[in-house]
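@channel sequence for tomorrow's demo:
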Amino acid sequence: MRLETSVTSLSWIPSEAVTGALKSSFDLGVAHYDDPPPDVLDDAESLRTADRFRFLNRLSVEVEADGGQITAARYTGAGMIGATTLRLGPVRHTFQAFSMPDLRGEPEHGEGWVRFTQTAGGRTGVPLPRKVRRPPFVQWNAPLAWTTLSLTVHADGTVESGLAGASPFPRHWVYDEKGALMSKSGVIDYKSWSNVSFGKYSPWGDQDSAAFVTAVESALERSLSSAIMRGSGTPAIRKVKRGSVLVAQGDTGDEVFLLLDGVLGVEVDGERLAEYGPGAVLGERAHLEGGTRTSSLVAVTPCKVASVHADQLDREMLEELSEGHRREATGPN
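structure tokens (generated this afternoon):
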């Protein structure tokens, strides 16, 4: 029996992801944030041509099985690098990114299964001069960005895949073999990435970084996210330290929150009911049910949150969101 399968990561820079001195170039429009990628990945080349991602890692494999055992296993996929477009005055210039060689581990065989790993990535073709924490204390080239994907194929045809490692920046989305969005990295750390991710502190120097993986938000939340970030009102952006409370059960409030980065926990009477990653929209129940928060939102990791008054959003959409939250976790406030 011959089996073919794949897993793909796509890496992009979401709004508000850049901090420090470089942020001004994004705010002024010299550099640009990326629009969110599609929910279904079906034409990567068109996305690259449209400058919709920074790089892509496609781990594709072919496996042959016989009698419950793996008899042959090989890689067929590869990484795909994007480009960097800068606006210099009235003119836009596109710079081809620099691709690092794909790293592929020897297929690991077990009893009736085989596991593959592949790292792909690179760096922007635009220099990023900066001070760093270790020798030579100044870097000219941009830091490296990457993902490491894993794929385990069993002789009975079942498949397990995921994000085994990734650079702290940018955002990484993971798609299954049918191109459906299945998970995403939960935390972006631009400061750490720009200071550390070069030389030996990368997979090409034998050091990877663990990825904090979160579940995918709903299509409804993606629609609400667009309304929050691009609607009639300007959202307030705030940072929440790890362990801090964004809102407390029993408080009053009418804000709805969009989690831009990090992981928020939902707690009722001190019990953790659920955790949500980037893209989650929370806080709607206080607006719908009299103004009182029915649960606390606590930062599991450092978080960045956008908020708007709930009356700027469609009430029917908020009611639908609330019903989903009730089923998931007795309802985020």
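heads up for whoever presents: Residues 2-214 form one domain.
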